[in-house]
Automatic annotation (TrEMBL):
Protein species of origin: Carassius auratus (Goldfish)
Protein's UniProt name: Tetratricopeptide repeat protein 19, mitochondrial isoform X2
Disordered: region residues: 360-388
Subcellular location: Mitochondrion
One Gene Ontology cellular component annotation held by this UniProt entry: mitochondrial inner membrane
Gene (name only): ttc19
UniProt keywords, alphabetically: Mitochondrion, Repeat, TPR repeat, Transit peptide
Family annotation (InterPro entries): TPR-like_helical_dom_sf (IPR011990), TPR_rpt (IPR019734), TTC19 (IPR040395)
Residues passing through the membrane, by range: none
GO biological process: mitochondrial respiratory chain complex III assembly
Phylogenetic classification of the source organism: Eukaryota, Metazoa, Chordata, Craniata, Vertebrata
Amino acid sequence: MALRSCCRRLAAQVARLKHCVNDCTRNVSGSGLSLARIKPLHEPAAVFVRSWHLCVSEQRPSGAAGVSNWTLAWGVMAFSLFGSSDERTEEQKLEDELILLLKKAKYSMMIGELDAANGFLHKAVRLAHQMHNNDAIIYTYSLMANLAFVQGQLENAEKLFKAAMSFMLSGGTPQDDNAVIEMSLKLASIYATQNKNELAEHGFQFCTESLEAKIEKQKELPQESLSDEERKDTRLLLGLSLDARARYLAANHRFTGACRDYRHALQICQEEQGESHPQSLVLLSDLATVLDLQGKHDEALAHVKKAVELGHAAGHPDQHVLLGNMAGILMHKGEFEESSKLYQEALALARAAGDGEAVEQLQEGLKELASRRDGQTESKPEEQEHKD
């Protein structure tokens, strides 16, 4: 039993709160927020795409020191914002209040207080509407949509993503802007989860075709007119889109198309982020899983073995998942002894990491392995009896 796409789910569990905080930054990067005090909330534009799934740049405060540093930072900010309140205009005070609400919301997300974050965001969006500031509205809707997405409130997330996109497009943001495409990709993923297959496929097609056309256009531009960061971001977003579509196709047993997209996404990730990057290893493992499901066990084993070796050398945080996938493929090849060893090794690592989902799936793999062994043992006496 291979841990199908388990790497991705585990990575999402580890990074989902910090990821949703960073996501909104990338989603509104094309809108160019006009509020001077909202702009500092943005991380670099490449955070979301470069991280792909695992490498999130923001770090949650840990222990008393983290809380103390945060408290100090808030004290400095409060002093700078409100030190000369007598001279501040009403508009400036509203801006300050909006900034404060957004920062509180982001911090609440980071520490896992999602209900509190939701409350701050609702206050912020009302204030943004009151100020008639479309940039602030887009930014806040993006945060709200990502929060709903993380919480599994897919219908609400869909409405919020659509609202943010509507404000962006009406403000002149082009349809092939990376921020628009990223929101479209999340909508496609939502439709896939809801089994709205026609909408999902249309969404994935829009994302991949728009990005491929954009990349071709970028090749014709003078080198000085496009930074390496922009070029890289667009390519990585294409890789992300192909990866998402591959998972959708694999879930619907369309393995040929899934392999095609996985190979293309893997090529992009390796070229842009390196062969040992965590996402490259995830893609190698997922490609191996799909090949295994097609019965191409030898090719699958070659890919997952490479992922395990590179993961071991690089200290991959989910090495137990890679080992579990390799164990499953070996089991399907009939190499039960080696499969058992890897399952046990992976199980020990998963328990040490406190990864309950992986422990459960690895235990299921061991049960399947025992069943196959028993079936093989029972068939041998029958074969001998037939020969006699």
